[in-house]
Amino acid sequence: MKEFNYKKVIIILVALLVIQIIIYAITNAVMSKDNKGINQAPDTPVSRAEDREFLKQLDVAYADQKEEIINPANLSYYYNDKFASVVSMTELQKSLYKLVNEGLPAIYNATKDKTRTEVSNFYKTDYAKINSCGIMDEETYGYIGKDLVDQIYKGRNTFKSVEMDYESIKPNQNGYMTVEFKVHYTNEATIKMIACLAEREGVSPKIKYQSNSDLKKLFEKYKGEIGPDDFTEKLKELAENISDIKVKTKLKSNNYRKQYYNDNIEKFSNLGIVSENDFMNLARAISNETLISDSFYNYIIKLDTVKELDDRYELKLNLVFLSGQEYNFDVKMYKAKNAAGRLMEFKSSLYNDNYSDTNAE
After folding, report:
1. 273-287: per-residue pLDDT in tens?
2. Which is it for strands 326-334 and 312-321: parallel, antiparallel or unpaired?
3. What is the topology classification, in CATH, of domain 220-348?
């Protein structure tokens, strides 16, 4: 009987172990190569420059995977110094994620093409879901819905980023500190919001969001018969008629345009164009532009131009179309119906000429 060869067994075992180590190393190398392109959150805090560069690379697909990445630029840099709140930075980030990815899309889908009553009824029947996203009252819900419908035109724009205005932080607002921020979408669409963070324990909810809409700010100043819905609908009605005015007046003489206005004076009066010269200025502005798209996109209220007079408020605004074109208007909003029974009037501010010749522009 042959003697058992211990040395041979040991050599075989060592060889098997070496083979396993080699296989393990090769497997790790392959997996590492496959994962090179995956966008991963850094394990350690990054510098301000690195933070900005990292945030530029973030997209919605990655946001769907990682709740914590809704991270306004430099939030980690400013949070400990400026945010006097019991809310942690992680709680704020996750709450912003829920607002952007769940709350705002739900509000947009619920409020587009709906009447004020339908919007109000939806909030009352589904308020728990809306409240869970930090939107705690119907007024805020209504203004956010208006901004979304006006800016996220027919759902064509997608989320890009959140920008926090650290200079806007205000403490002691009924138990909350507040900070303004913007939710940016493609095509430069922006929703303005205010985050309210509890300053001490026992304040409920710990985080809530309010509207920071220009429309809301205008109606905090304006005291009269016009409501936000009336204002928005009148602007849209005017915008929807711009392409028709262009078709009917392009390359026409001033005499023809004047006659066209007088033949349709009631229609234009209802649109808020209340004088022949105002119409002529608008027709000239429209005719001098190549209207690439006649689809209304948004309006921009110039809040710094709002002034109160005895019987009215005056302000400037722009109507914006999908092509990027803008038409500028001076707007009169009467406190009560004027002698002609009107509440709103529009005047093109691109031109201010008196028309007497018969030549086309």
Report:
1. 999 989 998 888 887
2. antiparallel
3. Nuclear Transport Factor 2; Chain: A, (3.10.450)
